[in-house]
Amino acid sequence: MSDWNFMSVIILVGVFVLWKLEFAATLLNLRAFPATVPYALKDLMDAAKLDRAREYLRAHAAFGILQSTVSLVALLVFWSFGGFEWLDDLARSFTNSLVAAGLTFLSLLFLGQSLISLPFSIYDTFVIEQKFGFNRSTPKTFILDRLKGLVLAALIGLPLGAAVLWIFGNVAHAWLWAWAVVTAFQLILTYLAPSLIMPLFNKFTPMPDGELKQEIEALGVKCGFPLTGVFVMDGSKRSTKANAFFTGLGKQKKIALFDTLVEKSSKPELLGVLAHEIGHFRCGHIKQRLAVGILQMAAIFFLLGLATDPSGKFARLLFDAFGVRQISPHVGLVLFSILLDPVSKVISVVANAWSRRHEFEADAYAAKVTGDGAALGEALKKMTADHLSHPSPTTLRVWLDYSHPPLLERLEALAPQPL
Known about the structure:
Strand order of the largest sheet: 1-2-4-3
Helix content: over 70%
Order of helices and strands: HHHHHHHEHEEEHHHHHHHH
Number of helices: 16
Largest sheet: 4 strands, mixed
Number of strands: 4
Shape: globular
Strand content: under 5%
Distance between the termini: 70 Å
C-alpha cells in the first residue's frame, strides 16, 4: 500500500471535489429540464418528444455517474495498492532503456484504461444511442474504429512519446524543447489530418455541381474565405446526428457537411450554418485559440519539467504521494496529469466561457452576412430537437461543459433588435 503525505491529500481532495461537482451539475441539470415545450421549439417538438428528450438526458446522466464512479474507484484502488510503482517496475524489467521502459509503461497504462472504458463505449453506442434511434454504427464499424484508433495511437503516439521522453532524459531546458517538438508536431498533424487521417474513418465525397454548391462557393467569395473544396461526409454511417465543420490551415480551407445535415436542412439553413463556421475564421477565433493553446501547452510543459526534475522537491513530493521511488519522465507525465486534472477543470470553465463568446460572435457574423439570423436559428432549433438536447441546461452545467451557448440564449441573441 502507498504511504500518504500532504500532497496525496491535496490530490485526493481535488479529485473528490471534481467528482462531486460533476455529480451536482448532473442532478441540477435534470431538475432544470422544462416541464412543457419551450415556445421556440413548439413547431418542432410535442410533449411526447420532450418526454423522450428528458428520458435521453436521464439515461446519459445515470450512465455518466456510473462511468465517472468506476473511473474514480479504479484510480483509487490502483493508487492505494501501489499500482504506479508496480507498473514502473514491470516496464523496467523488460528493458534497460529508459525511453523503451517509459513507452512500455505508458502503453500498458493506455491499454488498461482502454479496457476499462470499452464496456462503457459499447453500452453507450449499442444500448443508449440505439434505444433513442441515433446509432447507425454496426459492430463491424465499431470494432474497426477501435482497431484503427489503436494503430494510429501507436504510429503517432509512440514516436512522439519517445521524442519527449528522450528530451526530458537528455537535454537541458527539456520542457522548452519538448514543447517546441510537440507544438510543431500538432501543427503538422492539423495540416495533414484532413487528407491522411479523417478519410480512414469517414468517406468525404465532393459535393456535386448544382445550385447548393454554387451558393456555398459564392458565400465563400463574399466572406473572403479561401475555400478549396466542399465535401459531404458520411456521418450517417455512425449516427443520425448532424453537424458541419471546416478543416485546413492557411489557404487550404475545406468545408465538410454531414450527409445528415444536408438531408434535414433547407438551403438557407445550410448557408446559415456555413456562414457561422466561416464567422469563426473571419473573426479570428481560429488564430486566437491556436495561440492560446500553444501558450497553455508551454505552461504545462514548464510545470511538467518541475514534476520530473530528479533534484526538485516538488517532483519528490509528487512521486512520494503515489508511492513511486524512482523519479522518471514517463511516470511523472502520468502523475502530473492526475494532479493537473482538477486545475484543468477550472481552466476549462474560463475556456468554455471564452468559446461561448466566440459562438455568439460567429452567430452575429452569420446573421450579418446572410442578411437574417432566422435561417441559422431554425437550423439550431432543428439540431436541438433532433438530437434530443437539453433546451435550457442549468448554469453550473453550462459553466463546466458547454463550449456553445444554450439554444435559447443563441436564439435570443439572433432575434432582430428593435430600432
